[in-house]
Amino acid sequence: MNRTKKSPVIILAICALVVTLMLTSCSKAEQKTDRVDYSIDFPANEVGRAEYNEHIFSTEFTLTLTLPRGITIDTGKPAGEGIVVTFSNIPILNDKGDTVGCIGYNVYDAELIRGLPEDEIDPMMIYNQISLGNHYQFAVKNKYDVVNNTEDLQTAISEVHNDVNLSQEERGNYSAEDYNYGIVSYCKTLPVYVALDLDREAFTQEQIVDIAGSISFDVSKGLEKCS
C-alpha cells in the first residue's frame, strides 16, 4: 500500500511549531538574567562596632540573596544612616548609584524561644531590637507575612516606618502611609537575623517577594566558632 506523502503545509506547520518552541525556550532563559545572586559575608564592615557588642561582630555567617538586575550591593561601602538599629550595615544601590535600600544584621536571644512550638514564637521575640524604635522601626507586630519557612530559617515581609530619607540622610515626619518595604529573616541554627529596608518607590511588590524568597544562610563558620 502506498503511503500518503506529507503535505507541504503540514511540514511548514511543524517547522513553525519547532521554531516557536525554540524561541519560547530562549525567552525563558533570558528571563533568568533579570536577577543577580549575591553573597555577603557578615560582619561586612565595622559599622556599629563597640566594646559592648563584640559578641555580635564575632558571629560570622554568609547571606545569599537574589536582587533584580540593576540593583546592587556595595559590600565595600558602609551605609550612612540606613538601618540605624542593626550592625555592619551596607547600602543597596540602583543602576544610577543612588541608595534605595540597606541591609544589616543582629543577633537574637535564643533562650527566649528555646523549646517553644514554632507557632508560639512571636516575631517580637526575635526582632525586638528593631521593632521598638520611635523614629525607626520594622513593624513586625502589625505586619509579618511569612514568605519562606524551613528547618533553617524563617523569612517574612514587613513594613519599615522611618523618618530617615535613605538617599539624603535627612530626618522628617512620616505617617502610616509613608513606609518602606521591610524584609526580615532569622536563622534557626545560629541566633542571627538580617533586616532589609527597601525604598517602596524603587521596588515592586513582586520583586520584594522574590528577594525575600531567595534568602539563605550559610552559618558553618559561626557554628565552628561556637563548638
Could you state the order of secondary-structure elements as H and E?
HEHEEEEHEEEEEHEH
Distance between the termini: 80 Å
CATH architecture: 3-Layer(aba) Sandwich
CA radius of gyration:
23 Å
Low-confidence stretches: 17-31, 166-175
Task: Describe the global form.
Answer: globular
Main structural class = alpha+beta
Percentage of residues assigned to helices: 10-25%
Beta-strand percent range = 25-35%
Plain-language structure description:
With 227 residues, this protein is α+β, with helices and mostly antiparallel strands. The protein has a single domain, classed as Protein Transport Mog1p, Chain A. Helix content is 24%, strand content 31%. The chain is built from 5 helices and 11 strands, in the order αβαββββαβββββαβα. It has helices at 8-31, 54-57, 123-131, 205-214, 220-226; strands spanning 35-42, 61-68, 72-73, 87-93, 99-107, 136-138, 145-149, 153-162, 180-187, 192-198, 216-218. The strands form 2 sheets. Strands 3, 4, 5, 6, 7, 8, 9 and 10 form an 8-stranded antiparallel sheet that branches. A hairpin with a 5-residue loop joins β4 and β5 (99-107). The longest helix has 24 residues, at 8-31. The N and C termini lie far apart (80 Å). 32% of the residues are buried. The model is unreliable at 17-31 and 166-175 (pLDDT under 50).
Entry keywords:
3-stranded antiparallel beta sheet
